[in-house]
C-alpha cells in the first residue's frame, strides 16, 4: 500500500494518549473525530479500540471522518486494518460505502504492487468468521484488483 513520509498513522500505544483519542472519537467536531480515527488506527487490534474505529468508519455525521479513518487503517497494510474496513463496508449506507471505496482506491490501488498486496490480504479474509467481511473480500478479489 502506498505510503508517503509523514502520512503514516501515529502510533498511539500509551494508555493516557489512547484514552484521549477514544474521548475525541465522540467529539462534536468532525475534524477532532477524524484525527482520533487516524491516531486510533495504530491500535486496531485492541478490541476496545476496534469498537471505536467501527463507529468512526460508519460516522453518521460526516463522511470525512469515515474516509480518514479508513485510509489510516488501510495505510497499516495489514489484515486487521483491512478487516475493519471491510466489516464497515458490509454494513455501510450508499454514501458511506462510497467513501470507504474511495479510501480503498486511494490507499490500495495506486500501483500494481499495491493491488497485489490488497489481493493477498483479501484472500486471507475470504474465510473470515464474519459473513460481511468474507463477502467484501470476495468482492475485492472478484473485481480483478
What topology does this entry show?
Layout (H helix, E strand, L loop, with lengths): L14 H10 L5 H11 L6 H11 L5 H13 L3 H13 L2 H15 L3 H14 L5 H12 L3
Helix pairs in contact: 1-2, 2-3, 2-4, 3-5, 4-5, 4-6, 5-6, 5-8, 7-8
How would you summarize this macromolecular structure in one to three sentences?
This protein has helices spanning 15-24, 30-40, 47-57, 63-75, 79-91, 94-108, 112-125, 131-142. The protein is mainly α.
What are the key terms here?
single chain, 145 residues, mainly alpha, disordered N terminus
Strand pairing plus helix content: what structural class?
mainly alpha
Rounded mean pLDDT is 90
Count the E strands: 0
The N- to C-terminal Cα distance equals: 13 Å
Q: How does the major sheet shape up?
A: none
Radius of gyration: 14 Å
What is the molecular shape? globular
Runs in which pLDDT lies below 50 for 5 or more consecutive residues are 2-12
Total number of helices: 8
Assess the beta-strand content as a share of residues. under 5%
Share of helical residues = 55-70%
List the secondary-structure elements in sequence, H or E: HHHHHHHH
